[in-house]
């Protein structure tokens, strides 16, 4: 395994035009700032509207948080797209089930984005907080890029180890609401559910830049 390769993250929803594109573009923008060159984030849909652009309100949300919604086209989730992915973040528990139907080998690498974020919050609360370098310093050689990749490739197992400490009061709290063909208020609800999860993931990346 070439640990100098970037960490590959896939976000998944249904149509791949509302929720998973927002997660894709905002995670990519934030991770590029925290760990330049360290991540490639993509997305796909379990019943994708293939070739369609991101929905306009979703695109506005991406811009609001500093991401780029341009040049997006929805893709259908396939075993080929899953190949080589290190971490799958789904928008609902049902999407997680559909990923595992395509490839059961992803059992330990697939989470809903909200549950994964809660797990990282638990890990961060228990972290000792070693000294961190700045992103510019972190990748002055391939060794530090490899360290970042190795860290994230092992993260799923560490996160799953604290699952019992991060269970929500209601299982529905693992899901992001689907706003497709619904009012702007539902898009706002989607944003309110998704944004904290993205913030937690980006915080974990910033806290764990290789020294």
Summarize the structure.
The chain has 211 residues and is an alpha/beta fold. The protein contains nine helices and four strands, in the order E-H-E-H-H-E-H-E-H-H-H-H-H.
Give a description of the structure.
Helix 1 links the parallel strand 1 and strand 2. The chain has a 4-stranded parallel beta sheet, with helices on both faces. Helix 5 packs parallel to helix 9. The protein has one domain: Response regulator (Rossmann fold). The chain is built from 9 helices and 4 strands. It is of the alpha/beta class and 211 residues long.
- Structural class call reads alpha/beta
Q: Per CATH, what is the topology? A: Rossmann fold
Unreliable runs, pLDDT <50, ≥5 residues?
128-139
Listing every helix as H and every strand as E from the N terminus to the C terminus, the arrangement reads: EHEHHEHEHHHHH
How many domain regions?
1
Proportion of residues in helical segments: 40-55%
CATH top level is Alpha Beta
Biggest pleated-sheet summary: 4 strands, parallel
Strand order of the largest sheet: 2-1-3-4
- State mean pLDDT (0 to 100 scale): 90
Q: Count of helical segments?
A: 9
CATH architectural category:
3-Layer(aba) Sandwich
Global shape: globular
Span of the ends, CA to CA: 22 Å
